[in-house]
Design brief:
175 residues; alpha+beta; Alpha-Beta Plaits; elongated
Length: 175
Amino acid sequence: MPSNSILEQKQKVVADLAESIKNSVSGVVVNYQGITVEDDTKMRKALREAGVTYQVIKNSLTGRACEECGYPEIKSCLSGMTAIAVSRDDAVAPAKILKEYVDKIENFKFLAGYVDGGFIDAAGVEKLAGIPDKNTLITQLLVCIRSPLVNLVYVLDQAAKAGAEPAAEAAPAAE
């Protein structure tokens, strides 16, 4: 039977992870087997720069935290060497960054995840990784909004020039 101090430590880990999950917009669970120290260091740096928390926590503790947050489906995906990446702000950042390593390393793979309160399986995480980040989506939206306006201004400008030219030519001829 574990001592009280060990139980308290484990309860704190579960509580901290549950709090992190509750305050996030997305999270991804991966099997990180096969990653080299060099790749792991690069991956963790990229995740940190994107504001993503990446933790290796015992599967039983991760499972309890996920159940507490309303993602009991994730518990069934927790086997082997797993880690969880959680993002507070950018829903696609964890999946997008980890996708590079899923593609590069044979045993490194998506297991499950969640986004905006809903569970997603490994295939769903793959799809999430293919979505452009927030800034790219905003830029694409602005381009879509701007394009018709630019075309309208161009057409109106050409119509104004076409309408003004005959009147300008007619004035000297009348003199």
